[in-house]
Amino acid sequence: MDPNTGAGPDGHGTPVGRRLVLGMLGLGAGAMAAAPWLQDRLETALGAVADKDPTGVTGLLPNGGGFRYYSVTSSVPPKDAGSYRLTVGGLVDRPGAYRLADLRALPQTRLVRDVQCVTGWRVPETPFEGVRLSTLLDAAGVRREARAVRFTCFDGAYSESLTLDQARRPDVLVALKLRDEPLGHSHGGPVRLYVAPMYFYKSAKWLSGITVTDEVRPGYWEERGYDVDAWVGRSNGRDDDPTA
Amino acid sequence: MTPPPERTAARPPRDGERDGGRAAERDEERAGQPGGGSRVLRFSPAERWIHRTTALLLGACVLSAACLYLPALAELVGRRALVVTVHEWTGILTPLPALLGLASRAFRADLTRLNRFGPHDRRWLRAALRRDHRRQERPAGKFNAGQKLYAGYLAGAVLVMAGTGLLMWFTGLAPLVWRTSATFVHDWLALAIGIVLLGHIGKALADPEARRGMRTGRVERAWAAREHPLWRTDESTGDAAEEDAGKTGDGH
Fold first, then answer.
1. CATH code of domain A86-224
2. Which ipTM score applies to this complex?
3. Which of B75, B109, B148 sits opposite A186 (nearest CB)?
4. Interchain proximity A27–B142, CB inside 8 Å
5. Which SS3 state, helix, strand or coil, does residue B23 take?
6. A212 near A142, Cβ under 8 Å?
7. B120-148: per-residue pLDDT in tens?
């Protein structure tokens, strides 16, 4: 037996295993370097295939395109036109609650912008439609001491915040439609927030409560390290192209 | 750790029920052989623990990845913050059992065997590429060339996944373009690892004796002679004996 290895005659020959490990490390480093170029080509190719793919298999491939479902709770009870309520309260003169039909009766705004997730995926030119948040705030009568707006969700855990100035922007919606269809449950329906100029975690799904407050309270992911002011391209250490 | 009871070679295997009647029949045949010396040591207890803990960690890592990545599973499981934590920690701990295992002489010897390719391994690979299943075309030592390639590939891939994973985990570690590139490499390599892992599990499912080797440490001598004709089984038993001696305190 070979006294050095204990592996016997089986332990002689070319060290292919070691070369394979080092080769994988080299390949990984090379792929890192080539990634910006490679990713571009692959996204274009996969996007073209996904358009004509009835099986949906391409959706399972990395960067296969489209939205990804993120939920912070184990399950979210669905709500429909009958059970859905959106409350508006806090530092306002006229607190109240909206049913889905009430929201649909208000003036609707349609925006077509890119959606950018802080984890990297981007969905180009996605139409959202709904009521401007400023419309709801004006109807409730925001008091002078108010500085911010807090959003809560019927998943029971998620929350978000905007400053009052951010909340009054014309590209911040209480969205009822995505791609000109009623907002489905997995996309945060029947009603979600849509903050066009910010990373998509600001666009809270399953919106159920709007509370006007005197200061910004960090939301769910913001307590876990994400930026509160989440401008696309100017926060979270990212430099994506702005979405608004 | 005490020496495995299997080392008292005459012990009748208890695992027949897992593989159904076929295995039970084989066990009876074996029990009928004089001396019961038909089983040879393939994996020491340390090696089996390395395999078990690695499989557990990597399995949890892959499952949590699926719950983060596949829309249907993500909707079913939710709890994103928890699943992310499980994925990060099982992932970064996956190399640990093998690193600790370097203390085992039997494991180090097997790493040497996995590392070294002899002429017979090239022959095995050429036959595999031709889909040639004839025994004489598939010479193998303790590990065949396919197992050697799998081991090297997976070891390298796990390290690349750990590196790219750390870049995504600790976002302050490197500039953004690195993080985007790391995500790209991590996602695609995950797919490649998943396919190869399915192959590994499929091969194991197809060979009950190979599974028994990893479960009990011992395999039938006939199986060893058939699947690994160049493996000198007496030597590896010697390794394990040394290791056991070490554990009882009178060795290295």
1. 3.90.420.10
2. 0.75
3. B75
4. no
5. helix
6. yes
7. 999 999 999 999 989 889 999 999 999 99
